[in-house]
What does this fold into?
Amino acid sequence: MTTVHERVDTFHDNDQKPVGYGRMLRKEDPRFVRGRGRFVDDVRLPGLLHLAILRSPVAHARILSIDTSAAEASPGVKAVVTGAMLAEQGLAWMPTLSNDVQAVLATDKVRFQGQEVAFVVAEDPYAARDALELIDVEYDVLDPVVDARRALEPDAPVIRDDLEGKTDNHCFDWETGDEAATAAVFARADVVVSQDLVYPRVHPAPMETCGAVADFDAVEGKLRLWSTTQAPHAHRTLYALVAGIPEHKIQVISPDIGGGFGNKVPIYPGYVCAIVASIVTGKPVKWMEDRFENLISTGFARDYIMRGEIAATRDGRILAIRTNVLADHGAFNGTAAPVKYPAGFFGVFTGSYDIEAAYCKMTAVFTNKAPGGVAYACSFRITEAVYLVERIVDCLADELGMDPAELRLKNFIRPEQFPYTTKTGWVYDSGDYEPTMRLAMEMAGYADLRREQQEKRARGELMGIGIAFFTEAVGAGPRKNMDILGLGMADGCELRVHPTGKAVVRLSVQSQGQGHETTFAQIVAEEIGIPPDDIDVLHGDTDNTPFGLGTYGSRSTPVSGAAAALVARKVRDKARIIASGMLEVSVADLEWDKGSFRVKGDPGKSVTIQDIAMRAHGAGDLPEGVEGGLEAQICYNPSNLTYPHGAYICVVDIDPGTAQVKVRRFIAVDDCGTRINPMIIEGQVHGGLADGVGMALMEMIAFDEDGNCLGASLMDYLLPTALEVPDWETGFTVTPSPHHPIGAKGVGESATVGSPPAIVNAVVDALEPFGVRHADMPLTPSRVWDAMRGNARPPI
Amino acid sequence: MQVPAPFEYERATSVDHAISLMERLGSTSRLIAGGHSLLPMMKLRLASFDYLIDINDLHDELGYIEAGPDELRIGALTRHRELLESATLTAAFPIFADAERVIADPIVRNRGTLGGSLCQADPSEDLSAVCTALGASCVIRGPGGAERVVSMEEFHVGPYETAVGDGEILVEVRLPVRPGCGSAYEKVERRAGDWAVVSAGAAVWLDGDVISDARVGLAAVGPNTTGIPEVSAALRGQTPSESLFEQAGAIAARSCDPATDQRGSADYKRHLADELTRRTLRRAVERARS
Amino acid sequence: MQVTMTVNDVEVTREIEGRLLLVHFLRDVLGLTGTHSGCDTSNCGTCVVWLDGEPVKSCTVLAAMAGGHQVRTVEGLAKGAELDPVQQGFMQCHGLQCGFCTPGMMMTARALLNRNPDPTEAEIREAISGQICRCTGYATIVRSVRWAAVHEANAAAAVTETTESPEAGEIDNAGRPAGSVV
It folds into this structure.
């Protein structure tokens, strides 16, 4: 392992290498800076119609009647469709990614405010919007279940009476670890600390909302669907299963995507409505959400009510962790996670520590709120797991009177213990935690910060230092135990080298801003020696890319990055055989030197990959048994997840008079294994850190007691601006993954996972003079002030 | 897609033209200046009008900051950014620059106007608190060019409701200029660009080391932006001191009527009314002395 | 009603509804899809364009209000084939990821540099504080604007006179068919 303290030189020139890894400028940027990105809403087709959705104004109600006659007569309107009409075609309900069903348009009841009730198709979007005003729906309003704690009370209204025999709001139970063994360790521990924690409902809110353009060609029988999806292939298969259109007649195109963060993994009713509308009208139809629709109806994140318990010795050895979780899944179980993992990867809640026992028991419930749960760069619920463990470790440090850094250092899994099997059965592939932690402390000037804090406290000033250390589990599968609706979590990659030595790579994963066109060109370049500028990366078109499950859970580099490296090696192996013919030596006499094969001991005799490509396609003989062409395709099935880790330190100042929190510094040291493009990695980390500031300090999708969503606009759902975030200080260590072909681990969600507990820990640390041990997010000034007065309350 | 319901667009070329358009089109017409409060409400279909009368071309007529010996006059179409950048205004009343720095964001401030802010009459609106603290008066012009002048207290009839009647337009805000003035504004917000959790503006006039007059205006602590006469009474004739500011803060806290909402609890807002009153008075006095 | 305005130095006249928002006029009538729409409530700034040289949020300006005025969009930022230093800075310093907020951010950045050629980090953060980016965490955007400022200053020092005048932007870029909302 190497330890490097990264220095960011703002103005250094592009040090692009002829091949391979390094800080290379992004290949996708020239179109974006010219305003020539092509997002779904930019798709223009002849005869395009526009779709608008009527949504429920209430959280829970029976639909008594819907009168669409006035809307149908409205100028420019081509069709008005209700749930009853969809039901006639068997399309009123669709499967969710968690084997539940969700209404495309409500038929019997509405189950959350903002649920889809009817849609209008019109010649222009303004006319479609106007016609929504003319649809008359009569509701019989029912009592809603808003608080998850109330969902399982015997007299709670039953939300899911669409499910045969359903008499309560229970969604599922789940447990992991060893209950008895954990109880035994807790019974003999010197110290036990328990803390209730809420991870409130938040929303990924990518800048581009969700939408689709559906174009069904009745003559060809083919559906073309441009849509905001992070998983175009998985969506294609699901559309085939839902709509009954043969899969080879569906082309899903995911063009430029304006941010995803998990918001664009599920299939939303609007996509299905657009498809239905195109079939009904015979015209292409566009549906594009506005921000209200995005926030009120699409996949939320978190909403876990947790109790964390930690057992330790008096001298600070952590022995066991136990947690009990009440999960609010909303009105339908729309969780986008591997089906065998209903709580996602929450099972990694034991964190980065070598402990004796662990146990989690979870109950999930339905409520009258929008469905979702797994989103917002959460790595399948690792956000919640890391928040839990990093918060209760701080609570323990407080109880023991120990420095939180020291407590963590004392309990880390040691490097020689890897691969390390946790008490909940996860096999951490590699890690070397202490150097990462030490580097973060050194960058922060940890000891000086603590001294400064002491001085400030003596003056009545409030300064806090918060630490979080996380281990992530990313890059799902392996396919044998990870699938989404039966589709194994593996990813394809195809590489073609053209006769002139230029290449095209086709991916099944889908960039939403992560820079795949650059990173994957670099991976292939490193393996095959063709400069990245000579390699085009194609993705986001199911007709033109190999099958795979898409981009979420930080999968791209761990899964498709491996696929890209291996497919390039496969092409290189063939190139070696062709080179042996060209140089008239045996393959064993050749050595590879980034872009050419050389005869060992005779460096003057060599052929470049470009020479080989021309030979592979050209006239003349190839070695016996070698087909022409220079291309390969593979489907990569990861043997394990990869486990990136990181150490984050946050420094906050709190105004004692107004309780406003200012994040003064944030130090992030990430270890994502082998680093491909440091510039892109840094960007991924920065974005996640800002997410953390948002979640810790301001973001929350709140509801009133009637189930009205109080956060359905960017006036009410606050996202951080440039003024709330500091200039990030980043560093890195490198502990390669032993099973990934190039040792890379994935970094897309690390910072979103790791930063919220660092910030909350810093705020709680700042409030120590007030005896505060915990305060829930979002730490708005009002909620911090409550905590300072001994009145810290959960946000729900 | 959030779009307004259909309306006809009219463009006024002068104040009198705007008034005649309003007279002709009646109460289903509405003036639009910056539009950053009005259009979102119309897009959400919380408001709709048959006609919108665009008065942005009146900027030549109503976009000005003029200092006179007794009063400083600001045209109603003066944009936030012009208020922020006016050396004249900042020299006389730094409370304006304090407030303008935290009103919405720089891009909204490029379009939004003083008159639009006051006429929106949102209880959380910052400039209403500023104008209240400064004892401003508002000049309203009506049919036939008749003008009337009302105090801020008279101007604000209720939440989102002002003294500007049908066929009338707010044309100018007048700020009395008296010697020894210091002023300051402070806002607590959950995030830059958010509406105030609470904000406070204070203006003091010193005669030697004695407060000859003082006014405090609060925003977001009641149904309407609140001026607090009791604070003025408590401060007048006193020598500035921490205990005096504390006394003023306590009056502010008990005089306001905040509600618990997503921005904060009523108790917290009441605390802020106290805290921010003290802070702004302290700074206003410092500025008056310097 | 009929509206005439100048967009990226080209005068355009179209028949529109009075309620048509400027962002939709640019995107759907003129086909200039570089300007985006992200929130409808003037909070996110993906729709920022210039009106008479100053950044405005075009989701909250009527197209009719822009009549008789000068509008500039991201498509009119480069001078022909030559990218504006702000565009170069965003590429050099990784000031964009998904690219959705980028046009608005760049329009604001360019306007800032026009008024203040050497802004501090704090001034840049203030200038873009009405715009949301979900990808970058803002630090690289700040660096991008500084890159542009430094490179412009260096270029100005190197060149004693400028002879070029801005070239006309294209309305119908990329050959996309322009839809119509009337």
